[in-house]
Write a structure and sequence with these properties.
259 residues; alpha/beta; 7-stranded parallel beta sheet
Length: 259
């Protein structure tokens, strides 16, 4: 299927590896030019070179902290225009809510709620003027079913979800869509790093621990990042203009709720 994205420009955050990179790669394969961002220049430059060499699109890496005003300004200034925006940021640390003070909550909200809102605010009017825009926020299944020990993430991401539910309807008539992707377990460096401690406690290797965890996923396996990237690319496509304000769970069936 031709997704109708040839020649568009996308800003993809957290794109040096993992799910952000998978989204960037899927878009690049459709002929989308990219501005990709993460904080680590070396990893980001390597990702940019690979994407450019393998797809032939323009790829501009901008190493910056997207949660800061200067970082946002640098990333947005690098794009000729923004037809597609993929917001993505690592989650805040786990822990009991009693352990966190005001500064922890403010940082979590700034990173996982306010930053996506600021980026959307910066690009949405241009999208409206061009009568095309696709915004996808990579959030978490915790907005459907809060995860024990992830109170900072549960709260901040739920706030973003509530904001998107309203603003997505305000801009829908202009062919601008805003949706959220909620990933379950995908085979990324982040998942492996987070799994290492539990694997050690259980006397297993990381691969053995992931295989054990996969037994509780109806699909019977951990997700492949490319699967997530393809779903993101479709939501950004010319064919997805009637899909907006949605929270798409991609987790192999692990979330068992009806809504």
């Amino acid at each position: 299927m031709d997704l109708g994205l040839q020649g568009k420009w996308a800003v993809v955050c957290g794109a040096s590896k993992g799910l952000g990179f998978a989204c960037a790669q899927a878009l690049a394969n459709e002929g989308v030019n990219l501005v990709i961002n993460s904080r680590t220049a070396q990893t980001l430059d390597k990702a940019a070179q690979f994407l450019s060499d393998s797809t032939g699109v323009q790829v501009i890496p901008v190493a910056a902290d997207i949660a800061t005003p200067n970082g946002q300004e640098a990333v947005l200034a690098a794009a000729k225009q923004v037809d597609i925006l993929i917001t993505n940021a690592g989650g805040p640390p786990p822990g009991d809510f009693r352990e966190f003070d005001r500064s922890h909550w403010i940082k979590a909200v700034e990173q996982n709620m306010i930053t996506p809102i600021e980026l959307i605010k910066a690009v949405v009017d241009g999208m409206i003027a061009r009568k095309f825009g696709r915004i996808v926020n990579i959030t978490s299944t915790s907005v459907k079913a809060p995860v024990d020990g992830l109170c900072l993430s549960n709260g901040a991401r739920a706030g973003l979800t509530g904001f998107i539910a309203g603003v997505s309807r305000e801009v829908a008539s202009h062919n601008v869509t805003i949706n959220n992707l909620l990933p379950g377990k995908f085979d990324t460096d982040r998942l492996r790093n987070n799994t290492a401690k539990k694997a050690n406690l259980n006397g297993r290797t990381v691969d053995e621990e992931l295989a054990y965890q996969a037994q509780n996923i109806p699909a019977g396996r951990i997700g492949v990042p490319a699967e997530f990237g393809h779903a993101c690319a479709f939501l950004c496509s010319a064919h997805a203009g009637y899909i907006t304000g949605q929270n798409l769970v991609i987790d192999g069936g692990a979330y068992r709720g009806v809504l």
